[in-house]
Amino acid sequence: MIPQSHIRNFSIIAHIDHGKSTLADRFLELTGTVEKRKMREQVLDMMDLERERGITIKLQPARMEYTYKGERYLLNLIDTPGHVDFAYEVSRSLAAVEGTILLVDASQGAQAQTLANLNLARGQNLIIIPVVNKIDLGHAKVDEAIKEISQLTEVGEEDVIKISAKSGLNVERVLEEVIKKIPAPTGEFEKPLRALIFDSSYDTYKGVIAYIRIVDGEIKRGDKVEMFASGVQTEVIEVGVFRPMLVKIETLRAGETGYVATGLKEIGQCRVGDTIISPKRGQSPFKMGTVPVILPLPGYKEPSPLIFASFYPVDANDYDLLKDGLAKLNLSDASLVYELESCEGLGRGFRCGFLGMLHLEIVSERLKREYDLDLVTTSPSVSYRILDDSQRGYQVISSASDFPDASRFAET
């Protein structure tokens, strides 16, 4: 068993198309996590949509082992998207790690999402390892990129690592810097279980599968656990790790990242951001006044939708399938929000909120592919806050059909 002092949890963040997935590929090769005959480009991009478009849509964890100076280390990586529409994926991954690699394309320099992701990482007080990628490109501006990222991260230019993720040049040094600079997790095995759910998916046989970071305690198959927010208790069907496919193991301990098959069939009972705890609260060393309690882990700030559109099934009999599909997509995409809506011409459907046009496009395509649905999608719109003439407060309008007569409101 690898000791906790030899565990490192980290992610890769960058602007879109700066080489995150390619760097993750090299890590998996270097550590022997994926056999060479099974390697392919963007191996952590699991969805066909990701591979077709060449972008990362979902965060994806991977567990690697690496020998440094004769000692074995456990490296838990979370690869993240770069597009702004999937920034919520990045924020959730950063809450499950102690450090991150900030990757910058030498030919493009720091861009909008580079800065946004850097601010997210700083907000979590993470160790940041600056890396300049694609230094072998003919039009690369390596010195400019190094100077830029050095100023952003407030480190010396000599500490910025220069790599080519495509060729593997200097990639091993990045792994060594992860081991040297990112601290080991600080959780304690002896304390009652506390695990943060940073992502989830659904399996027909195993129910909700929670992707977790164990902060304190340990968890194994057959344990009774409780979802802190919902209060639902269940028995663990299976625990495992990401290599990068799901692989069963006996026990997950403090500091590790893995998954738990909860067996829960009601999706709302296990939500991203919740804390999985031991139901034996009376044994907890945490106290509030004189009553021993287990304190939940900080969750996530819920994102606010920026655009809205409605989905209606072409066949009215597919309404329940659409409802089930949205619920299951919401498990793996917590930034998707939706509510029931009906229309005289189109029947029953759902009004959905998205973080951007690409987010809308991806959700629509996943519903069609994964659930074989034919959908009518309304034109995207934005919300308005309207102050009525009585000055009683603001009313939120999400549909043009709900917009009141101009004489009835003071401002928008």
Task: Describe the model.
The chain is α+β, with helices and mostly antiparallel strands. The chain contains eight helices and 25 strands. Strand 23 and strand 24 form a beta hairpin. It is globular, with a radius of gyration of 23 Å.
What's a quick, concise take on this entry?
The chain has 412 residues and is an alpha+beta fold. The protein has helices at 20-30, 48-53, 87-94, 112-123, 142-153, 171-181, 319-332, 357-371; strands at residues 7-14, 60-68, 71-79, 99-105, 127-133, 161-162, 194-203, 207-216, 218-220, 224-227, 233-235, 238-242, 246-248, 251-253, 257-261, 275-277, 287-288, 291-292, 307-313, 337-343, 347-354, 375-377, 384-388, 394-397, 409-411.
User: Nearest-angstrom radius of gyration?
Assistant: 23 Å
Q: CATH homologous superfamily of the largest domain - what is it?
A: P-loop containing nucleotide triphosphate hydrolases
Question: What is the mean pLDDT?
Answer: 89
Q: Count of DSSP helices?
A: 8
Distance between the termini: 60 Å
- Which structural category fits the helices and strands? alpha+beta
CATH class of the largest domain: Alpha Beta
Q: Unreliable runs, pLDDT <50, ≥5 residues?
A: 282-288
* Arrangement of strands in the largest sheet: 11-10-16-7-8-15-12-13
In total, how many domains does the architecture comprise?
Answer: 3
Give the % helix.
10-25%
- What's the CATH topology label of the largest domain? Rossmann fold
What is the level-2 CATH architecture name of the largest domain? 3-Layer(aba) Sandwich
Estimate the global geometry from the Cα principal axes.
globular
Q: Give a count of the beta strands, DSSP E runs of length 2 or more.
A: 25
Give the biggest sheet.
8 strands, antiparallel
Query: Which percent band covers the strand fraction?
Result: 25-35%
